[in-house]
Amino acid sequence: MTDKKTIKPSHRRIWFAAPLVLLALVLLIALGTWQVKRMYWKEALLADIQQRTQAPAAPLAQIEAMAASGGDIEYRTVTVSGTFDHAKEQHFFATFQGQTGYYIYTPLHLPDGRSIFVNRGFALYDMKEPAKRAAGQVPGVVTVQGLSRARLGSKPSSLLPENDMAKNIYYWKDLSAMVGSAGLPLGQVVPFFVDADATPNPGGWPKGGVTLIDLPNNHLQYAITWYGLALALVIVVGFAYVRGRRNSRG
Q1: What are the sequence ranges of the domains in the chain?
Q2: Which residue windows are transmembrane per the record (predicted)?
Q3: Which of 140, 150, 139 is closest to 194 using CA atoms?
Q4: Would you call 161 exposed, middle or buried from its count of C-beta atoms within 10 A (0-12, 13-18, 19+)?
């Protein structure tokens, strides 16, 4: 049996550090593997979104049925007909193609008496008031094609300002607030939005087709980083072990 007193200090350090090194190695490999799984998930999600945005437009009733059954309605092409209530439009502060302005959310009254908020597109900052883009205030029954967008359950970030209801300026898409501000009965409003496509409006404003699908997929880069750190750890520990062995022999 080996006497503990004969174990050299360098060997004691190795035995003490070995569990920590092993734990770190397992953790780094696990993080890299998790990022690989996230990469495959993100690739599938992006492919699914691309398929949705390029699919034939579905009637509003079909998207509503999907939402009612708990399905994911984000970025699904939809067509809806009704009459815009321009007097009750709501203004979402935004930037588009490097310019500051507003997305114009307008209630579209449906034939069955309900309404749905349509993001008609972008208007420049100094065109917030409807009178400055009167040509785009389309009268009568219209048909809008675009993408369905789910409502937000709450403010997505504490860094965002609170919506300024008095000035009709929104910093996050609060459907309940828009409904209340427009004086619409909440139970008679479709519980999601539609982003209109890029079909030109009279007068050129607002400009549709503003939906941004920005889902970065950097998971491969992250996986390589974690796996690289794991390899570096193995190399460093290996060199340290070899050097320790040489010193103990000397």
Answers
A1: 21-56+215-244, 76-196
A2: 14-34, 175-194, 224-242
A3: 150
A4: exposed
Instruction: Identify whether the C-beta of residue 155 lies closer than 8 Å to the C-beta of residue 86.
Output: no
State residue 9's pLDDT score. Answer: 55
Q: Which fold has domain 76-196?
A: OB fold (Dihydrolipoamide Acetyltransferase, E2P) (2.40.50)
Segment 168-217, tens digit of pLDDT: 999 999 999 999 999 999 899 999 999 999 999 999 999 999 998 877 88
- Taking Cα atoms as reference points, which of 229, 51, 205, 240 lies closest to residue 125? 205
Q: 177: exposed, middle or buried (C-beta count within 10 Å: 0-12, 13-18, 19+)?
A: middle
d(C-alpha 25, C-alpha 215), whole Å: 30
How confident is residue 1, by pLDDT bands cut at 50, 70 and 90? very low
Is the CB of residue 104 less than 8 Å from the CB of residue 119?
A: yes
Q: What is the pLDDT of residues 22-60, one digit of tens each?
A: 999 999 999 999 999 999 999 998 899 999 999 999 999
